[in-house]
Amino acid sequence: MQILDGTVAGAVWGNQFGFQTAYPLRRASADDAGPVADLWIRSRRAAQPLIPPAVHSDGEVLDWIASIVIPRRETWLAEAHSQVSGMMSLTAGWIGQRYLDPDWTGPGVVPEGQF
Asked: DSSP secondary-structure letter at 114?
């Protein structure tokens, strides 16, 4: 993977319906706040009861993603069919947030329980 002008020249590989597929990776921008917040909210809800429910409203999550996560952290997105399917946010070199669209677990981008 090579970073060029704030984007990435690379991809994450997945196995969708028996075919090896490359899913583009790129840095998140301000325009991605809505899709990233939606992904975060749906992923957390799908993971209950394994993780506790969010304590903030959907609007508060969107504000946090838009004002903190995307502009102040190194946030990467994976895309499938031109939609955000996964996100990872780094803070001081550590993974702070990592979520995958619930529709892409199992036979999707990564095997269930391994993301």
From this structure: -
| pTM for this prediction | 0.75
- The residue written with tokens 């809800």 in the block is 45
Q: Smallest Cα–Cα separation from 109: which of 28, 15, 2, 10?
A: 15
Closest CA to 60 of 83, 87, 41: 41
Nearest of 47, 64, 46 to residue 56 by alpha carbon: 64
Q: In what order do the strands lie in the sheet with 94-100?
A: 2-4, 7-16, 19-27, 74-80, 83-91, 94-100
Q: Which pLDDT tens digits describe the chain residue by residue (115 residues)?
A: 444 444 444 544 444 445 456 677 889 999 999 999 999 999 999 988 898 988 999 999 999 999 999 999 999 998 887 889 899 999 888 998 899 888 877 655 544 444 4
